[in-house]
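Hi all, posting the design record for the shared folder.

TITLE: backbone redesign
STEP: 1 of 1
STRUCTURE INPUT:
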């Protein structure tokens, strides 16, 4: 019986505690980074809102900063409990929020564009455009951009890409396949969680 099977047989609270115990040493370093970033972003958002001069841009950036902070918290919670695909999905969301906040910065025009955005099918700005602007990576529209590659890797679970789906949550063997409903403590799952948290 694998660690995943043992944990799934326990009641949910026990399974949750056991998963955290098993994953803690494997995810400790990126988890610490996420916790520190979460605290920093909360402080940053409160400082932005405490400034005397409140602009639309500052309010939008503070709002997006809090969203990223919350996404990181939830991402860490899911990763620590053996849900790597869901953690990576929130990782993609956190990247989008962080890029949007950094893209808007102090620009009232960009803040207005964000506030007035009404297209349900598209974000207010494309991720490659925001990467190009924020980090000066003019290759963001190409696959050669490291920042864009990282973002695309985080998006794979969000879009149920088979390259990830076939490796996490299922174990393929010669005699068949074993699917896991719930937490996954396999090596592939831990790798996905580690990647999402960094």
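Okay, here is what came back for every position:
SEQUENCE:
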């Amino acid at each position: 019986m694998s660690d995943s099977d043992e944990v799934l047989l326990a009641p949910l609270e026990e399974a949750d505690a056991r998963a955290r115990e098993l994953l803690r040493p494997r995810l400790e370093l990126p988890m610490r980074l996420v916790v520190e970033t979460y605290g920093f972003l909360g402080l940053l958002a409160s400082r932005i809102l405490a400034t005397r001069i409140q602009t639309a841009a500052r309010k939008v950036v503070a709002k997006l900063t809090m969203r990223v902070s919350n996404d990181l918290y939830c991402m860490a919670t899911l990763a620590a409990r053996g849900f790597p695909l869901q953690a990576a999905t929130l990782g993609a969301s956190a990247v989008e929020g962080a890029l949007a906040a950094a893209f808007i910065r102090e620009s009232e025009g960009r803040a207005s564009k964000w506030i007035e955005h009404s297209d349900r099918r598209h974000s207010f700005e494309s991720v490659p455009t925001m990467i190009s602007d924020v980090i000066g990576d003019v290759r963001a529209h190409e696959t050669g951009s490291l920042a864009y590659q990282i973002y695309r890797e985080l998006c794979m679970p969000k879009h149920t890409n088979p390259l990830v789906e076939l490796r996490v949550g299922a174990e393929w063997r010669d005699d068949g396949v074993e699917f896991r409903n719930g937490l996954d403590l396999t090596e592939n799952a831990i790798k996905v969680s580690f990647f999402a948290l960094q």
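COMMENT: Residues 12-50 form the longest helix (39 residues).
Let me know if anyone wants the other runs.
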